[in-house]
Amino acid sequence: MTVADAIRQVKIRMQELTPFGEWLAKTNPAAGGDPIPVTNGLLVLRPTRDEKPIESYIRECLPDAFKIIVDSVPEHLVPISSMEPTLTPDYTGAKTGTIKIPFFNPFYKLKFLQLSDWERPVTEAITMDSPEYKLQFNEWTRGGISRPVVAIERSLSGTDFSTTIKLHYFSTNEWTHELKTGTRLLYINGLTQPTELNANIDLDENLEIPFYYITASLVYSIYGQTQFADSMMETAKAMIQGTIKQ
Question: What pTM does this model have?
């Protein structure tokens, strides 16, 4: 499946929910505009001078839809690779430290990480958007050796503003510490950035149709059509559950 294939299939799914009547979505999700018309029961998805084509919105939603799929299914259904290089913890002071990831991929998942002085491993990392993340910068509320916390941090760096990723861990009592054997960081092969229409999306064929529905749901959300967005997402979830049970 290519990006162009996905865009075409998502548009087909969006037509399935087109009402035989006036379309209430605005042509410009941000600024508003005239209603998008319906001709012979088919949704006419065309832009105005101030709006991007519907294909652009679909294209932008593909990575988020891909991530939702990845987060929703067992590991054996997604193209996972295991990264087990030599990861080096770097003590930053204040009983915290970081581990720089040697290369970038937007879909990281922590599988197992344990420092030498931790009483237990961390098997799931929090994100910078998590409410728990802010608590880690207070010495009284952050994780400790008995209940450690690891956050995945993304930032822009360099003259080309490339994205770098590091693991920020809380906390450690030792100035010199090391990772215990077994630390694993998973990454997902597949859709990274939908830059080229002929770029391949590496996804199990049983998950392709749910992927289209999820993307359509995200696009409907941009247009403020929550009822259609919810319907598409529920359809996708039911399909995913059916795939998992197979």
Answer: 0.60
